[in-house]
């Protein structure tokens, strides 16, 4: 009764324009979403309104037009490029005599198809259950009241109340399992922090080319395709960056305009990799006509997951689709790289990205040589506790030479605590 619609079904798409300028790109993106879900659009119904209709979202005349389109095309489902209330879905289903699914339902369906790992499947199930809990009444309209008659009178739950309770129990169980997964991830992050290994997280609008870039930089074979939400489960790989050393690169789920809040909440454990990153690589499709809107959509999600304060390097991808464009690094007034233009598909500009990473990350890392007097064994042991010593040697005068590499934040903190430390720098 609450099953997802199956791939290969025929669908009527519905999109309503709420402004004078018709946002056809938004509709084109929705068509891509529907195709990614394995559904074939057979007809598109569009309309214009100043505000949604409370009963059908569209006007009554347009709702009749949708019902006629369903009958004429033999469609199995009506897909709305908007968020519908449970009542609107129910009213439309009665009128059209077929399933009606809104934008959130379509995105959830794609996520359910793409989830591969145990964690990903749990997160999708959590988002689906939360979405379903608001729509339970759709399936049990005939059982909203308690049954009467001999043997059935008296206190008890309605079928609807029973289902809501079962859903709450199920959601609680999934949250508990996701909490354990989150703790495991946290242990991994703490181990990397202890070893002073920086983490770079790839973020960006869906289908911007994050997985292609990830594969190019790590020589991996993570699934990458020209479709929305090709990546759902996070993947981590180690790479070496000049003058920085080992770095962990994380490929994450893509963002999208009007990403359902339930999904952001459900994927909190996955997005934690983004929140704890040393540097974010914001991958942008440079050939997309809606480039600025896509950037704003990603920044909105980053703000929602409290990752908007993390240092960010913009990666303008797909320059091979622009005419006569040469890969380059854009810098700010401090000569710090802020934007790299490249093509993950062809590999042009990847060396420039690695150069930019060296400059950005080495700026966050202190790499110094110090000479400690023989009586500073305590300070030497502190560097060992911080796992910061790369090389050690003995000077002729008995002093100890150390080559130290550590996060700039830790170095500044240590210099403040040990005020004589700067005088030992060679």
Automatic annotation (TrEMBL):
Q: Where does Mg(2+) bind?
A: 211, 231
Any one GO cellular component localisation term in the record: cytoplasm
Lipid biosynthesis is among the record's keywords: no
Q: List residues of the Hflx-type G domain.
A: 198-365
Task: State its cofactor.
Answer: Mg(2+)
Q: Which UniProt keywords apply?
A: Cytoplasm, GTP-binding, Magnesium, Metal-binding, Nucleotide-binding
**Chief location of this protein?**
cytoplasm
Matching InterPro entries: EFG_III/V, G_HFLX_dom, GTP-bd, GTP-bd_M, GTPase_HflX, GTPase_HflX_N, GTPase_HflX_N_sf, HflX_C
- Cross-referenced Pfam families, in alphabetical order? GTP-bdg_M, GTP-bdg_N, HflX_C, MMR_HSR1
Q: Where does it localize?
A: Cytoplasm
> Binding residues for GTP, per the UniProt record?
204-211, 229-233, 251-254, 317-320, 343-345
MF terms from GO for this chain are: GTP binding; GTPase activity; guanosine tetraphosphate binding; metal ion binding; ribosome binding
Q: How does this chain assemble?
A: Monomer. Associates with the 50S ribosomal subunit.
Job of this protein: GTPase that associates with the 50S ribosomal subunit and may have a role during protein synthesis or ribosome biogenesis.
Q: Which family does it belong to?
A: Belongs to the TRAFAC class OBG-HflX-like GTPase superfamily. HflX GTPase family.
Q: What is this protein called?
A: GTPase HflX
